[in-house]
């Protein structure tokens, strides 16, 4: 929008959905997809910041990163970092799906306990049934039994539970 933080500065943000393939997580593959081509990575240089979408300079980031910007601008980086766990600060977008009463995408502090996420944020299991098992982050994660679901949802803790997520992304 216009006049951001009272300054004579305008910023417009456009979001686009990628082609849905794993490869489109790589920025130049996403650009190819955005341009209507097959979503495969481009040879670099040139880099997207110089020659990106439709030959124009382009900055790419995921929506989750942009979600953090207002809090960081309004309250500062230290405040944002302190929202999460000691080594994994800030918030993340967590997707609750499957057999929970309130499935959805929720922004929560890093380190938020998985069991609390399911029971409090997701409203528990439909019909008052007991939690049996959870896959906390897709196919790279082991199945956690109900007894193992007290894991904090941050990179270090989920990696310690046996997931490859600890290497960089949720």
3D structure, described in words:
The chain has 170 residues and is an alpha+beta fold. The strands form three sheets. It has a two-stranded antiparallel ribbon with strand order 1-2. Strands 3-6 form a two-stranded antiparallel sheet. Strand 1 and strand 2 form a beta hairpin. It is globular. The C terminus is likely disordered.
Order of helices and strands: HHHEEEHEEEH
The main sheet comes to: 2 strands, antiparallel
Record field, number of beta strands: 6
Strand content: 5-15%
Structural class: alpha+beta
Oligomer: single chain
Strand arrangement, major sheet: 1-2
What do the pLDDT scores average to? 86
| Distance linking N and C termini | 30 Å
Helix content: 10-25%
Brief synopsis:
With 170 residues, the chain is of the alpha+beta class. Helix content is 24%, strand content 12%. A hairpin with a 7-residue loop joins strand 1 (91-96) and strand 2 (104-109).
Q: Which terms would index this structure?
A:
single chain, 170 residues, alpha+beta
Secondary structure elements and pairings:
Layout: H1 27-34, H2 63-75, H3 77-82, E1 91-96, E2 104-109, E3 112-113, H4 114-121, E4 133-134, E5 144-145, E6 152-153, H5 155-160
Antiparallel strand pairs: 1-2, 3-6, 4-5
């Amino acid at each position: 929008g216009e006049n951001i933080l009272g300054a004579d500065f305008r910023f417009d943000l456009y979001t686009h959905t990628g082609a849905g393939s794993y490869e489109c997580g790589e920025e130049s593959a996403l650009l190819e997809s955005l341009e209507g081509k097959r979503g495969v990575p481009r040879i670099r240089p040139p880099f997207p910041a110089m020659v990106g979408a439709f030959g124009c300079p382009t900055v790419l980031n995921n929506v989750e990163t942009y979600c953090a910007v207002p809090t960081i601008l309004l309250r500062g980086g230290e405040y944002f970092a302190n929202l999460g766990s000691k080594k994994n600060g800030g918030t993340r977008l967590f997707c609750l799906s499957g057999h929970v009463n309130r499935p959805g995408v929720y922004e929560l502090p890093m380190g938020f306990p998985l069991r609390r996420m399911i029971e409090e944020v997701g409203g528990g299991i439909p019909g008052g049934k007991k939690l049996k098992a959870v896959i906390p982050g897709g196919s790279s994660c082991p199945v956690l039994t109900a007894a193992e679901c007290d894991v904090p949802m941050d990179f270090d803790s989920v990696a310690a539970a046996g997931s490859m997520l600890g290497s960089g992304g949720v």
